Amino acid sequence: MKTCGSWELPSRYTSVQEEYEAVRQSAGLLDLSCRSLVEIHGSDRVRFLQGMLSNDVKALVEGKGLYTLFLTSQGKLVGDMVLYALQDSFLMECDEERKGVLLQALDRFVIAEEVRFSDLSDAAGILAVCGPRAAEVVADLSDSVRTLAQTFDHVSFPWRGAPVRVARAQWTGEEGFHCMAAREKLPELWQELIAMGERFSLRPVGWEAYQVLRVEAGIPLFGTDMDESHMPLEAGLEDALSTTKGCYVGQEVVARILNRGHVNRRLTGLRLQGGKVPEKGSTIVAGDKEIGQVTSAVFSPALGQPIALGYVRREFLTPG
């Protein structure tokens, strides 16, 4: 089992290979109790978050979302999140184990602003459908899902007497959708998605297969591949940075690095010889020189060899 805050997630349901193939070839269903939801209310929410977060919150309209970061004034990561724009609020999706730190850090900056944070972790949860046939599975919940054209687009609709929000998201390198619903509805929603996905060969997917999928896709995970010691550009998080929005916490450091043109280390993908999967923290060497450390490693079915994510010094980042 994978422990995530107060939740335990299955390591596997059948086999890692079967679950991996389901996502790569058809569809897989993941329990995302490792992700938390927080609603952000208040008349000053847009202005406040625009000055706090790294991406352009002001540009969001209802039904849209974006990936963004909260940084320290030194430009180091506090946490990452997806922000969804609702009619009168924002919905923040973040790592369950990082939620408390993020909320405490953001709340320290609230002085006279009308901004309120409501932790929905006990009230709502997320299931994810991923794979090339994921859109066909979730479309059976509501035709409105077919309108989600871009990553983080989202729509809410009634389902069996309660609202469900579906957002387009990519957690595995394949097309995917996050289905957000009340906790008491999640078991029923899980069974419904299993039943609807049967004709598409959908399978439940555990934590081990998910790790293989995301490492193959080069998707970093907070607490595993990045933490408070890293800067966004070291972790390859350029998509979470706006270069046009103006000031936000840590922006001066980010701008200075962008103007300088490089960081001294960077998270990169590694193809490994031999059959052994290295442990997290293993040293990466070139000749007799230590050049970095492994953060995540798995055996890749696609390549038939071990692969890893790890931080490597800038002068050794050239492919090959």
Structural notes for this entry:
It contains 7 helices and 17 strands. It has helices spanning 16-25, 45-52, 99-107, 134-139, 186-197, 207-217, 251-260, and strands at residues 2-4, 7-9, 28-31, 35-41, 65-71, 77-85, 90-95, 116-119, 124-130, 154-159, 162-168, 176-182, 203-205, 265-271, 283-286, 289-300, 305-313. Helix 1 (16-25) crosses helix 6. The chain starts with a strand and ends in a 7-residue tail after the last strand. The mean pLDDT is 95.
Question: What does this entry show, briefly?
Answer:
This protein is α+β, with helices and mostly antiparallel strands and 320 residues long.
Number-wise, the strands total 17
Q: Main sheet, how many strands, which sense, barrel?
A: 6 strands, mixed
Overall structural class, as computed from helix and strand content, comes to alpha+beta
Poorly predicted ranges (pLDDT <50, ≥5 residues)?
Answer: none
Morphology: globular
Number of helices: 7
Q: Please tell me how large the radius of gyration is.
A: 20 Å
Overall pLDDT metric: 95
Keywords:
320 residues, alpha+beta, six-stranded mixed β-sheet, five-stranded antiparallel β-sheet
Please write out the topology:
Elements lengths: L1 E3 L2 E3 L6 H10 L2 E4 L3 E7 L3 H8 L12 E7 L5 E9 L4 E6 L3 H9 L8 E4 L4 E7 L3 H6 L14 E6 L2 E7 L7 E7 L3 H12 L5 E3 L1 H11 L33 H10 L4 E7 L11 E4 L2 E12 L4 E9 L7
Parallel strand pairs: 3-13
Antiparallel strand pairs: 1-2, 3-9, 4-7, 4-8, 5-6, 6-7, 9-12, 10-11, 11-12, 14-17, 15-16, 16-17
Helix pairs in contact: 1-6
